[in-house]
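Now for today's protein.

===
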Amino acid sequence: GEMGSSQALAMAPIAEESRVIMITPWAQTSELSGAGDYIFRTTVNTNQEAEFFAGFIAKRAKKVDIIGINTAYLKSYADSFKSNFESLGGSVGLIEKVEQDATDAKTELIKLKLAGAKNIIVVSIPKQSGLILKQAKELGIEASFFGVSPLESKEMLQIAGSAANGLIYPLPYDIRDSRQKAASYREKYFA
């Protein structure tokens, strides 16, 4: 299956009609959940992650702004996060969209800076997330940065450099995982 949410959504009707199983390892848009009996994903969907993260951020901030990749993933995540965050008393300000192939996010970041953004969620893929963080630092944006699980990667860290310091993002983990490495991790973590 396709990695990106927009692409997976485009492929889903064809796979469903052909009765071909499509498994996407990364597409998180919640719209994919109802795409058919032959469509599967191996990761959390945006509703699951956004609900959790809204609760986490609501304990730390009352207002957030969002910047992300202009795809079905951003729309799904932003809609779900906003609904959950507002139900907890928070508010979402600007939602800035950066095109998928963009190599510059400064226009969108300047809008956030001028709006006084103090808590910014980056909803994007690793390469673009690294770019956004790096350019935010170059522009002197002083904010707390949050991200989404797909941005986690060596590539993002290499591009962002020190601009990734302090970035907070969820990383799905199954506490019931019975593999030895997972059990060892749990034992050390909870010790």
